[in-house]
Amino acid sequence: MKVSAKIAAAGLCAAVLAAVPAFAGCSQNSVCVTSIAKTGTEGSADTYTVFYSDGSTGTFTVDNGSQELTVGDLYEEYKQQTGEDVTFEEFLEKYLTVNADSTALATNECLLSTVKIYAQFVESVPAGIIYGRPYYISDYNIYGGSGVIYDMDESEGGYSYIVTNYHVVYDKDADTSLNGGNLPASVHCYLYGSEGTFQETGSEDEYGYTQYDYGDYAIELEYVGGSVEHDIAVLRAKTSDIKAVNPDAKEVTVGSGYYVGETAFTVGNPDDYGMSVTRGVISTVDEQISLNIDGTPRYYRSMRIDTAIYNGNSGGGLFNSSGELIGIANAGAGDEQNINYAVPLEIVTGIANNVIYYANDNDDDTVNAYAADLGMTCTGTESRYVLDVSSGYGSVVETINVSAVGGSSAAYAMGVRKGDVLLSVTINGEETELERTYDLDDLCLTLRAGDAITFKVSRDGEEKVLSEYTLSSSDLTAV
After folding, report:
1. What pLDDT sits at residue 15?
2. Count of alpha carbons within 13 Å of 393, Cβ hemisphere only?
3. CATH number of the domain at 369-478, out of 3.40.50.300, 2.30.42.10, 2.60.120.600, 2.60.40.10?
């Protein structure tokens, strides 16, 4: 982080056994499960093999299709096999444990997708005092951050896109006329395990600025786009340049969600001491924090973590215990190392995919990121916490009330009216339930011109599916 302090798969070691009598918790006097692995798929049935502490194995199937096996599947399979009337909580306590080493394995896998970043800007720097007054000269200043390889095109001539924080590549103190704006005059990255740093060459360029050598491992990056309002930026390099440094480098695996209490580790370059890992948990999935990146204070929806982050961690990936990306670390609360923040997954993917899409749409007039402006205002009421006992995770849900609708808006054209309660949204035939007011904001980052959208609402106690509306470019606004 170069701004102020204000900016700043667990393995299951037990499972349903093919032989019911062998289904026992680990103890000194019984055989227990050491691991479980998916070993085959036939049609919609997935086959899993269970490995026991005595060296034996067993198998069972779950009608899961392409979905991941969940603890709820194991629970239901167990009850079917045994006929035992056991609660979900009793099942978890008796049979399931967490293999802590799996987080270490996931961490090591993630290192192939992490980078440290140096952004170079022209700034006015103190040069001395004349007649009692300080004077300044223009020269380069270099700031550090972190990033993840988000998307990698391995075809000939393809690009790899790297996600970081916007504040890593934006300098409100840059000499805009000399620097070419507030974005970096140049930006470089290093892959984990092939790290280097910049060194002064002892010479100056044609403008009298200090020259730096980034070394053989440095990969020069190009700014693609970003959003100061969401603190996400996208950079890119030729995939061949990245593979030349490490042929095993790869894009991150993107997660599908996150929960309070879930393991959260990040990889970054704290205080420019070199890339390293810190680990904690997600403390809160939704918190508003105030940041001032470009001279304009804004509020940002963030997840709070107790994972330690420092200057230089900004832009680093936040991962769960399965090694899946769930956010981008971006802020801390000064010396309070148990209070830090990350940009949530939905915003990261929404902005990153948005920027990449418009960078490759063959339209020079579309740059950075855009969100659909549906022309309505929503407020949340009846906020409450709901626990899903089948998954073991819970979330906060609320009633989403429409408090205002613009008369010539997309929402009005669909039939949304003040007083409606939004239940779900269908985009191109795919329905998504709406549980929080910000769910709609996140989805608006994914919408493009030509997408078909409609809502299911509750009006006067009756559920209604509204008219379908096709978005046009005039419904999109830069973010």
Report:
1. 31
2. 12
3. 2.30.42.10
